[in-house]
Amino acid sequence: MFGRKDQDLEKGPQVAKTTLDTSSDGAVPGETFVYGDSLYAKLQRLAGKINIEQRGIERVPPEEQTDTSYFNIGSMWLAANMVVSSFAIGVLGKSLFALGFVDAILVNLFFNLLGIMTVGFFSCFGPPFGLRQMVLSRFWFGYWGTKFIACLNVLACIGWSAANAIVGAQLLHAVNTDVPGFAGVLIIAFCTFLITFAGYKVVHMYEYWSWVPTFIVFMIVFGMFAHSGDFVNIPMGVGKSELGSCLSFGSTVYGFATGWTSYAADYTVYQPRDRSRRKIFFSAWAGLIVPLIFTQFLGIAVMTATSLNDGDNKYQAGYTASGNGGLLAAVLDPLGGFGKFCLVILALSIVANNCPNIYSVSLTLQVLSRYTQRVPRFIWVFLGSCASVAIAIPGYSHFETILENFMNIIAYWLAIYSGISLTDHFVFKRGFGGYRVEIYDKPNKLPPGIAAAVAFCFGIAGMVTGMSQSCRADWADDEEFDDPSALPAQQVITNKDGTKTVVSYRFNDEGKKVKVTRRIKTTVVREHVNPQVAERRSWAKFGLEKGHAPGPSFDTTSVGENIVFRPSINWKAQAAEAEKNGGEKGSMKDQLKDKKVKCRICSGEHFTARCPFKDTMAPVDEPTAGGAGEDDEAAAGGVGTGSGSYVPPHLRKGAAGGGERMGGKFEKDDLATLRVTNVSELAEEGELRDLFERFGRVTRVFLARDRETQRAKGFAFISFADRSDAARACEKMDGFGYRHLILRVEFAKRTT
Fold first, then answer.
1. pTM for this predicted structure
2. Exposure string (b/e) for 652-664, b if CB count within 10 Å is 16 or more?
3. Residues 673, 722: one domain?
4. What is the DSSP string of 229-289?
5. pLDDT surpassing 80 at residue 584
6. 289, part of any domain
7. Are residues 460 and 584 in the same domain?
8. Where does the chain cross the membrane (predicted)?
9. Same domain, yes or no, for 450 and 340?
10. The CATH number of the domain where 733 resides is what?
11. Which domain range does residue 692 map to?
12. Are residues 433 and 303 in the same domain?
């Protein structure tokens, strides 16, 4: 023991302890940090030499409460929420809960206003009491009950840090695909550690300015997206599913907004004790509501663009490939290199969001026991950063599910925590005057916390009965509700060797589900191209391709070679037989070894193209062309009269006639009747009447049909009241395209 011991912690230093105190007090006065020869004292002296904050959860004396800036309170939350993590909350409105634009905006607004109220209120406790938020919880939950609350807060702080680091890693991956997810997580965690390691003053100094570049980048995103015109006003849903989606999304928004409640007072303990509580409340309130509304509204709006072209657009492609980072990259893509620079700024903004989490987790861990309190705060900062990295790296590929579930849990327990704390403050303690601050570290004088524990259990019971269940009871339910017409989602697995395994499903010709597994290896080939060609590849597409990513599209452009592997059981025997026969087909020389060339004109042993009589003789066994004056119908070029492979409908199935006359009771010597051939089998008389009535009054339409199938045989007769109308129709409709065929129209032959 060293020095003297005073009764009041604020008036002088207590006796230094070289070993851990085993009394029920368990508190370490801030004035004795550097006394003694223990490892704790040595570490604290080292921290003091390099201006690292030494104080942990000990009460701050009035002479150290020198932070007189209200803007420090507001800027703390302004920077912590003006980040891409807040943008990601807005994105979840469509991607996870399938909400429209207006309903997502309204849910976001009201639940944000509700969630930040407790953060602003508990910020008012820091100046008059000089205690951290978890230490204040001892007055509501008791000394031992607060340990359980502290455990929940540790999980919240580390979980928040992990979720935020994943968002930053997605952005870095969108900028450079060579940066893997774990590397991005490590970068974010290391930058956060450097700032929080120094303590309260450095954290406030960083948050004071860090929101400025991030706000500028978000304004650029807003301007680029507004200029693109890709916003889609997704209509609002109705019914029970819409109600459930609104409540689920609202719970997620509330969890993000109220997530700062459990360490709100940590960042106002150095404010003077005579501070106006009203000004402190509105400083924190304004610092929270502005960035939350701005970034989350922007996320909701940008995510609507993924609905363009039924999801076939650059926004959806970017979101599928790199999550929120890919979505922002699609918006900033026209800016080229500057757009990538903006993405890096947004990625580093995660540091401002993680600083409160890592700083507060170091203080919360000291609340667990007097042994953890004897570990310096900056050591807990390092361990908390390592824990967040250990969670973020495995959860990188499942961000949406992790974020939704984590957000809901945060909203549940913090709602219970706030309800119990506010009830105790207003009903039982009747305001700030009902606290005896000097007993904050005396378990026997603090409330037992039994009532709070019982209330918390009832809150958990309500939470369990009210939460959404996404799992089924057993495998039988899974079979019963399985949709046979639905295909499982495509899975992309990144292998250790850098390749990707893509597992997709499709229906084969028999209607059965087929699993297709592809292993993709990406090889980067650098080539020198004309600068103008390279520039054109980055141009924005227009017309039918508007909204697609610049450059070649994978569904219309082949950028690689697809090798189809068909395994065979007896492939070795087949290969040996093929080798024995000299190849599958043999060489062309062997095939033509005993062949002789024969001319088709003179039957000589030479090629037909080199025949000396090709201009004077016709080919052998081919009838000579008729005279120019002969009236041969076959030479008239009628439809179906040639020797080509195409057979018109009216000549199929061995039909001999071409439908030159109407025949039967319709046979008339009508000079105003047209014969229409090459008519589609699906044609109808009403359609033909509509086609030809444009030229004059049609008196009769006859469409020849097959007796068995009742389909058109391929020809029809159209009779007009006036021959001049028929002549005009013949001129216009001959060669007209009707039902994928070209009509042939001529005057019907007169009866003989």
1. 0.58
2. eeebeebbebbee
3. yes
4. T----PPP--HHHHHHHHHHHHHHHHHHHGGGGGGSGGGTTTS-TT--HHHHHHHHHHHHH
5. no
6. yes
7. no
8. 70-93, 105-129, 141-167, 179-202, 208-226, 280-306, 378-397, 409-428, 449-467
9. yes
10. 3.30.70.330
11. 633-747
12. yes
